[in-house]
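Input record, target 12 of the design panel.
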């Protein structure tokens, strides 16, 4: 009887030690997996939900997450679409705990999103990463590998040739936000 109690106690201790080791191992694997998630995957878990993003220049955007790619996020904000480069995001509020990997192996760069706006000849407002908030309004004429060329327009006018105010080239790295009409396809 005493031997049975001793062996039973030893077996219970052994099972408890194995269970603790298993739990530690599972927790470590979960931490390792979480450490490999990107901001894009965290944001992708909030598609269809309202969030707020603060940008590096102090501008804040509040809207519904429509799409998330590795380099950018598309928000629907009131009656406009806002493309935000993830590299310029300084803070996110309203993000849930759900995470999601990309559903497609095809990833669209920020330049690809801007090419869609250029193809549609959509009027855009570019917010720039400068010491003082600066915006440029116009139509994207050309999207290169690391820059955009914008045909500047006067405020409140259409994009007729007579309303041009010149062209400006902006490096993609200087863009903080790209605001356009809500009816653009992405």
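The sequence produced for target 12 reads:
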């Amino acid at each position: 009887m005493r031997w049975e109690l001793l062996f039973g106690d030893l077996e219970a201790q052994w099972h408890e030690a194995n269970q603790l080791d298993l739990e530690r191992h599972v927790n470590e694997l979960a931490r390792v997996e979480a450490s490999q998630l990107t901001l894009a995957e965290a944001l992708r878990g909030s598609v269809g939900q309202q969030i707020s993003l603060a940008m590096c220049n102090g501008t804040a955007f509040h809207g519904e997450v429509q799409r998330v790619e590795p380099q950018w996020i598309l928000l629907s904000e009131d009656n406009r679409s806002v493309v935000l480069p993830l590299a310029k995001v300084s803070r996110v509020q309203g993000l849930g705990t759900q995470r999601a990997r990309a559903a497609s192996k095809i990833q669209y760069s920020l330049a690809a999103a801007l090419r869609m706006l250029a193809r549609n000849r959509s009027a855009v407002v570019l917010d720039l990463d400068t010491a003082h908030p600066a915006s440029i309004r116009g139509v994207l004429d050309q999207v290169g590998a690391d820059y955009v060329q914008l045909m500047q327009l006067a405020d409140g006018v259409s994009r007729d040739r007579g309303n041009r105010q010149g062209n400006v080239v902006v490096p993609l790295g200087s863009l903080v936000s790209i605001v356009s009409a809500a009816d653009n396809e992405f």
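Residues 1-36 form one domain.
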